[in-house]
Amino acid sequence: MKPYLAAALTLLPLLCQAQEGPPITPYRPSVSSPAQLPAAGQLELELGGLSSKSDDGRRNSLPYALKLGFNEQWGVVMSGEGLVSTPDGNGGRARGIGDTLFVLKRAFIIDEGSALGLELGAKAPTAKDSIGSGRADYSLNGIYSQDMGSVHMDANLNATRLGAHDAGTGRTQTGLSASFSTPLNERWGVTGEWSGTRRSGADSTAQVLMAFSYSPSKRMTVDFGMAHGLNHASPDWAFFSGVVLPLAQLW
Fold first, then answer.
1. What is the pTM of this model?
2. Of 5, 69, 103, 163, whose CB count within 10 A is highest?
3. Which segment of the chain is annotated as a signal peptide (predicted)?
């Protein structure tokens, strides 16, 4: 993972913005998405490095996300993997870009500490077949976010209609996740999460995640952590690090 992290860190001096402006809204590093959107008109970048190990070997990638809120209720997210290196099944490695996910997001703000969210997503098969599925997927994700004292919870329940699936397995995959985060002090925070997926005729997945975050200002957050699979269908271990920061104030 070191080359990927080095590439990400090299970009930081070019991407860091002035400290004046709205605070960022990180979606990293958990699987769960928060219901809230970034400040209206603020284009935010999330960029990181991810290395996971499973029975098939080690997979490395550079995940990214671009987020833009039109207002407090509506926004869009484009995410994917800028570079992937994964076993190709023939003893070598496949390298290239990953698939790309486009999401239309609606937030329903209940009060200052709670919100509901709905995400409609479409995955474009931009990766070659040795890296991605080669087919488009469509997803619907429901979100509930709640502040409970100093602890913030994001719970997600989603369904994905897969474009590619093995014979004898279902095309619809359901997912459930819940993350809990809390500040340790003014700059440091910690996140814990459980997530998993189910699909008929296929093995279910489940993992736990723990991450720490460091925010030198309200306009930048750096995170690092690890995830551990709870069954044989999930990656054994995954290690990650990344950054969230604003790219531009478009309006």
1. 0.90
2. 69
3. 1-18
Q: In this predicted model, what pLDDT tens digit does every residue of 172-213 receive, in sequence order?
A: 999 999 999 999 999 999 999 999 999 999 999 999 999 999
Both structure tokens of 148? 């409970």
Q: Which residue has 């996740």 as its token pair? A: 177
128 touches 96 (CB < 8 A): yes
Question: Which residues does 121 contact at the CB level (< 8 Å), separation at least 6?
Answer: 101, 102, 103, 104, 137, 138, 139, 140, 141
Residue 181 structural domain: 3-249
Number of folded domains that form the chain: 1
Longest Cα pair distance anywhere in the chain, in angstroms? 55
Q: What is the distance between the alpha carbons of residues 71 and 76, in angstroms, rounded to a whole number?
A: 11
Distance from C-alpha of 176 to C-alpha of 189, rounded to nearest angstrom: 23
Q: Are 245 and 24 in contact (CB under 8 A)?
A: yes
Residue 102: left if φ>0, alpha if ψ -120 to 50, beta else—which one?
A: beta
Closest by CA position to 72, among listed 121, 105, 39: 39
Identity of the residue numbered 69: G
Neighbours of 116 (CB within 10 A): 15
pLDDT tens digit string along 22-67?
A: 999 999 999 999 999 999 999 999 999 999 999 889 999 999 999 9
The CATH number given to whatever domain includes residue 22 is 2.40.160.40
Nearest-angstrom CA–CA distance, 127 and 142: 27
Burial label for 207, CB within 10 Å (0-12, 13-18, 19+), is buried
pLDDT beyond 50 at 75: yes
